[in-house]
Design a protein that fits this description.
Blueprint (H helix, E strand, L loop, with lengths): L1 H24 L44 E4 L14 E3 L2 H56 L2 H9 L1
Antiparallel strand pairs: 1-2
Main location: other
Subcellular location: Cell envelope
Protein name: CzcB-like barrel-sandwich hybrid domain-containing protein
């Protein structure tokens, strides 16, 4: 019997304690006094004077691929530019002159190469013909010497 009364007593005690705790934890509503006025038209005059240093969000150092004198600047200080946009033009007279000189040197070298190639082909054919003639002479001399040194030719000479 004692075993049944203790759990029932604990249950009853818990039921009475929790409602008391929950009431004490409730927050009171805090009221803030507010001044209300009707809406009307009018001027708002409020000025604010500040001192500040203003700078770009990001800046980039620009270095040209070649040196020279600027012929034209196509943007103003502070303008926004995009990647790949031409912002200045460098005088190109000297570079165009250099290109023309390089083209002329290339053309002269190509002409020289064609001349050397043609000369080499002519000389090659000439040397080839001279070599063939020398080979034929050497072969004729060899046959002549072989004929002299042939055993039958010696017998003919001795018997003759």
């Amino acid at each position: 019997m004692y075993c049944r009364i203790v759990p029932v007593g604990i249950l009853v005690l818990t039921m009475f304690c929790f409602p008391a705790v929950s009431h004490s934890q409730e927050k009171e509503e805090i009221s803030v006094p507010v001044k209300v006025t009707p809406v009307k038209r009018g001027e708002i005059s409020q000025e604010l004077s500040l001192t500040a240093d203003v700078g770009p969000q990001s800046s980039v150092t620009i270095v040209p691929k070649v040196g020279g004198t600027l012929e034209e600047i196509r943007v103003k200080l502070g303008d926004m530019v995009k990647k790949g946009e031409v912002i200045a033009k460098i005088e190109d007279r000297e570079y165009l002159l250099g290109v023309k000189q390089a083209e002329a040197a290339f053309s002269a070298a190509q002409t020289q190469w064609n001349l050397v190639k043609a000369t080499a082909q002519t000389e090659f054919l000439s040397n080839l013909q001279q070599g063939e003639a020398a080979l034929k002479m050497a072969q004729a001399n060899l046959e002549k010497i072989e004929l002299r040194n042939h055993p039958h030719s010696k017998e003919v000479l001795y018997h003759g």
